[in-house]
Amino acid sequence: MALAVFDIGGTSVKYARWQSDQLSQKGSFATPETFEEMVLAMKERLQQIPKVTGVAISSPGAVNVAARQIEGVSALGYLHFRPIFDELEAELGLPVTIENDANCAGISEMVLGAGQHAKHAVFIIIGTGIGGAVFIDRKLHKGRHLFGGEFGLMKPYGQTILSKLGTAVNTANAFSQNTGIQLTGIELFARADAGDEQAKQYLAAMYDSIGLTLYNLQVALDPEIVMIGGGVSTREDVITNIKKRLYHYLAAESVEEIMPEVVACQYQNDANLIGAAIHFEAVMK
Predict the structure, then answer these.
(1) Do both 145 and 207 map to the same domain?
(2) Average pLDDT, the chain
(3) N or C: which terminus of the chain has fewer CB atoms within 10 Å of its end residue's CB?
């Protein structure tokens, strides 16, 4: 089975051909401003990826597969609350599946990546915001309102959501506002690496917020593995620091024996594409 796969993001749309568990003919285009322009762009790429039998899509928003529409909110409002499955199938002339982008990334890790051996798992992706996915008995748990895995909305200290406390982008913004030194997340890490104590303190607060959130998830769900994705997960020290915090919080309550495996994800930029393709294959069996 050969598929065309699309990963719709706020600024760009990635695409590729998928066959025999491999991506090829990868490319991207700027995210269109309207649904009609999105359809045209997809049609153009399908002409470049011939002989496919379906289209698999990773999308922002709460994807309601049963209702065949995308609910919730995202930066691309034109995707929401329309019969998007039916519209795309009619326009593209092929069967179409759509799943949430974080869910797709989690699926890629569970099937082909770091979570292959796991029965119960949590996947958390740390980018500009924080999202993720929950897998129970290797099945994706989406929840009654399709909000399963929206870890960025958790409030580790009861007031501010994790997406504001637990990302390098927002931690760097807080550093800049409080010090007057404008820098990016990458630059904040660089300052800490160079020995800047203030930068280290800001990153320590970020790790604390993530570790406390994972503590709450661990005692609530008891997964055997926590997989961390997003650009920061490529730094070994990030994984190490998060792991230390999680163990500390568990040990403080004398339940360190339930400490899960904490690992970086295997797939990064391709995770959403791969997960979308795997989702298609599972749905169409």
Answers:
(1) yes
(2) 96
(3) C
